[in-house]
Amino acid sequence: MDRRADVLVVGAGGSGAVLAARLSEDPGREVLVAEAGPAPRVPAEFPADLLDARFVPGARLGGAAVRAVPVLLAPGTPYTAPRGRFLGGSTTVNGGYFVRARREDFDRWAAAAGDDRWSYERVLPLLRALETDLDFGDAPEHGDRGPVPVGRADPSGHPAAAAFEAAARELGRPGEPDKNAQGAPGFGPVPSNVRDGRRANTAIAYLLAAAHRPNLTVLGGCAVRSLIIDRGRAAGAVAELDGRPVTLEADEIVLCAGALASPHLLHLSGVGPAADLERGGIRVVHDLPSVGVALSDHPQVIVEWTPRRPMPAPASSWLGGALHLPSTGGHEAGDLEILQSLVPLALLPAPGLTGGTVTAPGAPLPFLVSAQAPRRTGGLRTVSADPGVPPRVEYGYLETEDDRRRMREAVRAAAAVASTAAFAEVSRGLTGPDARTLGDDRALDAWVRARLGTCQHTCGTVPMGSAVDAGGRVLGLEGLRVADTSILPVAPLRGPAATAVLIGEVVARAMREERG
Ligand SMILES: Cc1cc2nc3c(=O)[nH]c(=O)nc-3n(C[C@H](O)[C@H](O)[C@H](O)COP(=O)(O)OP(=O)(O)OC[C@H]3O[C@@H](n4cnc5c(N)ncnc54)[C@H](O)[C@@H]3O)c2cc1C
Fold first, then answer.
1. Which residues, in sequence order, are bridge partners of residue 222?
2. Distances from the Cα of 410 to the Cαs of 102, 128, 145, 323, 335, in angstroms?
3. Cβ burial 258-284 (10 Å sphere, 16+ → b, else e)
4. Domain for residue 434, yes or no?
5. Taking phi first (over 0 means left), then psi (-120 to 50 degrees means alpha), and beta for anything else, what does residue 385 get?
6. Looking at the domain assignment, is residue 26 inside a domain?
7. Whose CA is nearest to atom 9 of ligand 1?
8. Using a 6 Å CB cutoff, which residues line ligand 1?
9. How many domains does the chain have?
10. Domain hosting residue 20, numbered range
11. Is residue 61 classed as helix, strand or coil in its secondary structure?
12. Closest ligand 1 atom to 83 CA
């Protein structure tokens, strides 16, 4: 045995960094964190590339902070999904959009878990506690002293964002000045975990602020390969630390490796659907059929428009406004999203790649258009006992006519924005789809399929209710939890980053309460 602790947290991402920081508030609890990626000890050690909120570092496959996972979005549509592999996990490389799940999401999760700890009323105190809302901090549903700064850029500060706002008004869409207030969906600025142009990832917001605690140890470059499970109890993990094998032991292990890596680790440790594991040559330790049996994410396509005149660089974030609206017969809280980028697509990945440039005269600007209806599709199957062999991940997008219809409606809604008089002030029009394609369902389906992407919002691979309980405890085993977006039975109607932080808070609260 190389290290021992009371709790071993595997992965310091959106949820793990939060959980480890909260658990180590109790000086009597020894917390050990194993993070596969590099682990700076102070914020100043973070490369500036990873903090500049005008970029999305995860858009750069092959970057040092990104792990690339081969997946299939739909039959015949291979894709490489990026995941953060750095302290802070995907919150270190993501878009910085920090929007709460909707009340109906929480109700859906509470029902699936059979536990009202996930109801909106029960999580609201934690949603308040995790943030310092820079705009609405004194409102009853908000907090003004939590670790994550949350701000919104005024759309009037950029001509493209102002035109989007005016276009939404022209279309009769409601204004939604605070997308974290559970109001009617409409146009509004995007709440983001950004202050002074810097993205506050969970490492900076939570973990490094706790790094001085003697009961908290963070091992960077430490990739867990499998868990040691003995007679129904998780006792430790086999890991590689800077290329050397190590054994980590703990009374309790919490997997926070993300919705693709956590189910893979469970499978490699013999926990999952027995028949599948046996087929992969893995010895079954605990038959848990729902681990990896499906996943939940949001399909996305990019719709671009050509500016009439050169657009200024955004002041602090790539994000313009966002419009949420319900699909036909869909969710009242809005299951379609049109998210505006103020930076051309080719310049989004990272300043290192673009010389720090965020404008390119004449380059089209993107809308990220997605259907965010709660759906469970696809799945993650582990095909080999070798941790180096990636699992087979299928997203199962566009399977049903309803899936395709929602994407058509989302693209048509973006085209409607672009065709308003207000938006024509700044735009020469879309680069595609053309009017004929927009008017023809089959042609539009083909257009979407040819450009199919994903929001990178994966959830649901170790779902509450059938694989874990509301506090993340793996059903049927002792000493093992999962606390990351894997446990959400279905993805929220919005991006999951704010909910990943909440998961860290909810599971920390559960562990505190159980300890008494
Ligand atoms: C490019 C990109 C952009 C995104 N943009 C947004 C956005 O703007 N808004 C939004 O709401 N959501 C966004 N998301 C999604 C959001 O960031 C994630 O849902 C959230 O970070 C998930 O948190 P997590 O804790 O589940 O996993 P992660 O944050 O991915 O953390 C997992 C951590 O575990 C570590 N790990 C993995 N395997 C091991 C192992 N074997 N041993 C040890 N450590 C391991 C990883 O290195 C990582 O640090 C984006 C995601 C990506 C990839």
1. 241
2. 19, 31, 37, 10, 9
3. bbbbbbbbbbbbbbbbbebbeebebee
4. yes
5. alpha
6. yes
7. 97
8. 10-16, 34-37, 56, 58, 82-85, 89-91, 93-97, 223-224, 256-259, 261, 265, 456-457, 484-485, 495-497, 500
9. 2
10. 2-67+81-143+199-292+459-515
11. coil
12. 53
Q: Which amino acid is at 18?
A: V
Assess whether 184 and 206 both reside in one domain: no
183 with 234, same domain: the answer is no
Catalytic, out of 158, 267, 331, 457: 457
The answer on 443 and 329 residing in a single domain is: yes
Pocket test for ligand 1, best of 56, 79, 94 (most atoms within 8 A of CB): 94
Nearest to 488 by CA among 129, 179, 105, 13: 105
CA separation, residue 166 to residues 163, 184, 304, 415, 447 (Å): 5, 18, 18, 15, 28
On whether both 340 and 244 belong to a single domain, the answer is: no
| C-alpha–C-alpha distance, residues 387 and 160, integer Å | 46
Give the separation between CA 489 and CA 113, rounded to whole angstroms: 8
With respect to residue 385, please indicate whether it lies within any of the assigned structural domains: no
DSSP reduced 3-state for 116: helix
Which of residues 451, 472, 496 is at a domain's end? Answer: 451
| Å from CA of 62 to ligand 1 middle | 16
Q: How far apart are CA 15 and CA 414, in angstroms?
A: 33
**361 and 477, same domain (yes or no):** no
Distance 34 CA to ligand 1 centre (A): 15
Q: Are 491 and 370 in contact (CB under 8 A)?
A: no
- pLDDT for the residue 61: 84
C-alpha 28/C-alpha 214 separation (Å) is: 10
pTM flag (> 0.90): yes
d(CA 236, CA 238): 7
Cβ distance 169 to 417 under 8 Å? no
ipTM above 0.90, yes or no: yes
**Residue 218 marked ligand-binding:** no
| 17 and 111 together in one domain | yes
Residue 288: CATH number of its domain: 3.50.50.60
Atom 8 (ligand 1) nearest CA: 95
Active site residue 457: yes
The single-letter code of the amino acid at 472 is: G
Residue closest via CA to ligand 1's atom 3 equals: 94
10-residue mean pLDDT profile of the chain (516 residues): values are: 93 99 98 98 95 94 90 98 98 98 98 98 98 98 98 97 98 98 98 97 98 98 97 97 95 98 98 98 98 98 97 94 97 97 92 79 95 98 97 98 98 98 98 98 98 98 98 98 99 98 98 92
Task: Mark whether 283 and 214 lie in a shared domain.
Answer: yes
Segments in 389-478 forming alpha helices (H): 401-418, 421-424, 435-438, 441-450
Are 262 and 404 in the same domain? no
Q: What is the pLDDT of residue 474?
A: 99
